Amino acid sequence: MFNFSPGPSMLPPAVLQTIRHELLSFRGSGLSILEMSHRSDSFSEMLEEAQADLRTLMDIPSQYLIFFMQGGATAQFSAIPMNLNPPADYIDSGLFAHLAFTEAQKYGRVVCAGSSRAARYTHIPEYTLSPDARYVHATLNNTVYGTRFSRLPETGSVPLVADLSSCILSEPFDVSRFGVIYAGAQKNAGIAGVTITIVRKDLLGHALPITPSVLDYTRLYEAGGLLHTPNCFGVYVCSLIFKWLLAQGGIPAMDALSRERSGLVYEALDDNPLFKTHADKRDRSRVNIVFTTGSPALDEQFIQEAQRRGLVGLRGHRVLGGMRASLYNAMPLDGAKALAECIRSFKGDAAIE
Ligand SMILES: *Cc1c(COP(=O)(O)O)cnc(C)c1O
């Protein structure tokens, strides 16, 4: 079976095997990771390894801190404005970008710098930045609508803050161009309940007084990244994913695979006149491919046919319907080939059409 679920999403089978193998006794300690103190030596060692491995994978410079937080990317929609203190610019490029913008309005003056909402987010919008913005927020891959920024927004000396939930670790990013990067782990980097947050150190110290301690980057830094009990098991799964990614050849290998996988599926879609993609060609995502026949009945027929072939998790997001194929790091090339073949051979039932 191939699992195209948008998140939580498929994990590498080798990682699942390791979890099963180590579950009763973590690294020979006799204790399960599920019952171990987050202040224990075994856990601290694993946490430090996870941070070091992520630093290696993404080539994160030393002036950036790495936190494994809770509350999903959604909690960061609040943490960002509370820590960075607007005015700020938001680029409205999709569902989550819009949610981040809406949440930030609770905490200060935020401006929509550009939006493709009126065009149902089929493309990445043009944008104009304000002179007094303290940061610019962008969602670099739009998980629901299947679009991506092909270039990083140019923000000059204003920190770029980016939601990388669906594209982290699947393509190279120059971390030094960002102020803050955050990503829910359950798409490309692990399981639900862990949020990777990468913060440039000089941005600390500006949190609004109302900021809850668990979302306060400065408090977290002062507590050595462990202000309270983290999602211990989730961090452990991330640590295994990072090691697996390093063994696969790291981000260059994931980037090449990602281009190849998405290329195969888009080619098949472009060759079959029954299908069209939601995204404009130039802004197509490499990890979330959103497509439809235009007929709900035919879409359903395609989803059923794919399921018969062992291709699952293809039903589109509720706001768009249709189909969405999520091709994250753990998806092997064979999964993309099987989906491309299913798309190519789909003719649809004339009666339904
Ligand atoms: C999934 C997703 C979110 C929401 O993440 P949660 O972890 O469920 O809060 C936010 N932004 C993007 C880009 C996503 O793909």
Short overview:
With 353 residues, this protein is an alpha/beta fold.
Mean pLDDT: 97
Terminus-to-terminus distance: 28 Å
Largest sheet: 7 strands, mixed
H/E series:
EHHEHEHEEEEEEEHHHEEHEEH
Number of strands: 14
Task: Give the overall shape.
Answer: globular
- The computed structural class is alpha/beta
Helix fraction, binned, reads 25-40%
Radius of gyration: 21 Å
List low-pLDDT spans.
none
Strand content: 15-25%
Adjacency order of strands in the biggest sheet: 2-10-9-8-5-3-4
Say which molecules are bound, naming each kind only once.
pyridoxal-5'-phosphate
- Total helices: the number is 9
Main attributes of the structure:
binds pyridoxal-5'-phosphate, 3-stranded antiparallel sheet, single chain, 7-stranded mixed sheet, alpha/beta, 35% helix, 353 residues, 16% strand
